[in-house]
Structures are given as C-alpha cells and as structure tokens.
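Ligand-bound model needed. copper (II) ion.
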Amino acid sequence: MKTYTKLMIPLLVLLVFGLAGCGGDKIVTNVGKLHFEHPLKIPQLLKPTISSDGTKHFQLTMQSGTTEFLPGKRAKTWGLNGSYLGPTIRVSRGDHVAFDVVNHLDVASTLHWHGMKLPAVMDGGPHQMIEAGETWSPHWTIDQPAATTWYHPHVHGKTAQHVYRGLAGMFIIDDKDSKKLPSNYGVDDIPLIVQDKLFTKEGQLSEKDDTTYGTLGNEILVNGTYDPFLKITASQVRFRLLNASNARAYNFGFTDGRSFKLVANDAGLLQKPVTLKRFKLSPGERAEIVVEFKPGEKTVLHSYNSGGEIDHGEFDLLKMDAASKLTESAPLAGQLSTVPPIEVPKNAKLRQFKMTMESKINDKKMVMDRIDEVVPAGAKEIWEIDNFGSSHNFHIHDAAFRVLDINGQKPPEYERGRKDTVLIPNGATVRLAVEFANYADPNHPLMYHCHLLKHEDSGMMGQFLLVKPGTESQVSKKLPKNDMEYEHNGHHE
Ligand code: C2O
Ligand code: CU
Ligand code: CU
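Prediction:
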C-alpha cells in the first residue's frame, strides 16, 4: 500500500504538469546561444587580519549594487563585499575564525555557514537575525575534515530571494589530505558556483517563482559570469562545484565525453578518486573533481537533461580552453582522505522523516519556537527520509552523513562520500548514517530541511537541538517567546 501511494503521487504530478503544458516536449536549453566571450570571474580570496592569539578575523558586508550579466545591461543585485556573490573564505582545520558580518541592506538577513560544524548559536540560521545596519560577530574553531562548504542567508521565508539576488559564497577548509590535490586558488584550484537565472528583457533578474519548485531559470551564471570561458594553464585542474541555485539540479559532464576524477563530496574528500563521466548536484550540494588537460584542448562543461522536474534542460555552462603550454602537475595520490567513512553503531537510533507534497516534513510545517527533535551531541544515528511528493532534497545542519542506501540499493558512485545535502528522488526512501557535531546547546536550534529554497521558505523544515547526552528528556521543546530578543547576544553594541 505504502509503495503504491508513493508511486501514484509522482504519476499524478506528471499528469497534471503534462496537462498544464509545463513538462513534456519543450526542453529548456541555452545550447547554441552562447559565444563563451566573458572570462570566468573568480571570487577573490578574503584576507583575514590575524590577532595576537592567532584568530583569523574576516569582514563580510552585505550590500546592494548593480552587476552587468547580459552585455550592456546592468541588473540590480546583492552581494557580500561586492555587488554579486561574496569572496571565498579559505582556512585550515584547527584555525580559530571570527567574522564581522555587517548588514548594509535595508532589510534584515542572516548568514548561515552551510556544511560547518560549530556551536548552534554561531550557525547563522533563522534565529540569528542581523537587522539592517547591524553587525553579527560569530566565531568558532574549524574542527572538521577538508571540504568545500559555503555561506548564504537563512531568513525564514526569505532565503530564496536573498540567495537569488546574490548573497552566497564559498568557504574552503584545508587539511593535510586536501594538500595532495591541486591547491593554487584561481590557477589549478577553481571555484565554480553554478546558478540558473531568469532575466527580464532589460537584463534584470526576474524573481518569477511560479513553479512548484520556485524559480527555474533558462540562463546559467558561473561565479556570476554569463557566457563564460576559462583559460586552462595546468595539466590537472581541480574544480570545486557548488550548486547555489534555488531549485535546479545539474547533471554535469563534458561535451567531448571525457572522464574525470571525483575527489570530494559535500563534506569531505573521498578515500580514493573515482573516475566518472557524469554526476548530479541538487541545490546546496558540492563536489570536487580533477580534470586532466592536454595543450590546446577545448571542451565545454555541460549539464545534461535527465528528465526530472528540477533537472530537465540542457545547458552549456563553461568553455575550457587549454593553453598551448601547460604547467605539469604531480599525479593524484592513490589515497586521499585518511578520515574513515561514517559508520553508525549497531543499535543506532533511527528517526524517520516523511516529505510530502504540501511542503511538510512529518505532517508539520516549520514553526520558529517548536523543537521537533532532540539529538545527543556527537551522536551517530540513522535518518530515513521518505519522499511521498515531488522532487526534494534534504540537508542537515551541524552534521555530516553517508548515504547508506536509496530504496535499498547502494547510492550512485558519485554520492558515496561525506555529505550534508542529498537528493531524495521522487517516491524514494533514502537512509543516511549521520554524524552530529559535538556541541551541546539546549537553547539554540539547528535545522534540517529541503534545500529547494521555495520549499524551505514555505516551511519544509524542522528544528533540532543538540544536547548533552542523557539530558534529552529534560530540555524544553518550546522555545521562549522572547526568543528573537536573546538571540541578539552575538551582536555588537
Ligand atoms: Cu544551505 Cu539550512 O542551509
Ligand atoms: Cu546548512
Ligand atoms: Cu522540496
């Protein structure tokens, strides 16, 4: 019965969409339209100031501005320390970091460190609001394996808009394992922030979000660059791909059919590189790949149609143009990560989450003062996500996980490493081995949610607390009403 219902709903969705004429024959594409004439923008590395105790201090200012995407047209955009997107933060495991996040917008926002293990009050979720004109100053110690993480606002109900307008950036963590890979930022270690957009005739960003999934664009920006190319100067290049789109998933590959090595998932390096020709990323997910080039070669990074609701479409993303002379790079090491894969104990606690059509998880919409789950800090648990609706994915704050299985089958090769966000295919059951951060705080909740931003905004999110093991039954599952007030304790006076 359960399986029957789960299969019927997607069928009905297909039928409704088919009738409405939004699915079906017409594939959204930009193929043939591009000239690859804009050099790929590389977000600047943000320089910290280092205090006497070694803490790295960074300043990020949210601001509005204008950006030329389509030639000759300037769009109104938001950015951090610039007009669109933000600088790349790069630190090493063990670093103490401190931020001043200044909000120069005229509305309140937040800044969430997606993929970071840290104290909940530093997480930048919907409870850590930064009012217009204010500064928020979180700080923590980087204590997790090397990974490509990212930052973006998390204002409840407004995340889609704030990210779409341009508030997002990359946050790279290095450790001794990650140094085995090409690491020269902007040369052989290249960030690729992929976002789909809708433009108006005047070249403004259109915020039209009338699909079930929110905004699905027909143009692609990479690092905020429209129609981009990249000159390749090394024989092996590491690309850090981040899907920072509101809803679209990509099925990445190269137009010349070449294979490449996948070296990392969202939350860390793989044990060993995996040779692939394609991999998918849904919103919020990251991957690192290493691509080999011969002098003079040209190829185009492409997203292949895979027919689903959020990953239909065919897009050229970035032309790569290898120079006639390339710097030789050392061959990839056999062993990459020395961190063992996430395993859960035999008697691990199992929690089940049901995602349904009405953007609910376990029949509930997110409520700011309600705690849905209480988890012992540092616990390892099995989380089982059931998708009874349309396309969704699932992200957990302050945790890393390994996908155990999808409908009882091993996950595809490209999603077997450490992750924090995963696609939950239509009608599927996905089981995760989750390792939670070891910071207890009975007062500040963390989130789990669908990372399709319209779904998240409309309440497809729950809250959990990480608490001192053994105190689970003692904590209140209702947050005080003056919640928003005492959340301000991270602020400057
Ligand atoms: Cu990318 Cu709850 O966030
Ligand atoms: Cu997150
Ligand atoms: Cu969703």
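Residues 152 and 163 are 6 Å apart (CA to CA).
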